[in-house]
Here is the input.
Amino acid sequence: MKVTIDVECTPEEARAFLGLPDVAPLQQEMMEGLQGEMAKAAKAMNPEEMMKAVFPAGAEGLAEMQKAFWSTLSGGADETGKST
Here is the structure.
């Protein structure tokens, strides 16, 4: 024997019937807080500040990193082609 029961209700009605809490206000509060934090982070992300965070030594630090990168890729040779 097979019995089928169809129940039509909204998600809110189903939550109330099963005794589950309504988390919509908490979710809304969390989303508003997250949006605020994301807006603050977006404002702080200007290119100059990002470069300072990544390369505290400035352009000199970037140049040193590039030299090390190319030296590694070229098998340890410096810019004159001599092995280091």
User: Anything to note?
Assistant: The chain has two domains: 9-45, 47-77. The longest helix spans residues 24-44. Residues 9-45 form one domain. The chain has four helices and no strands.
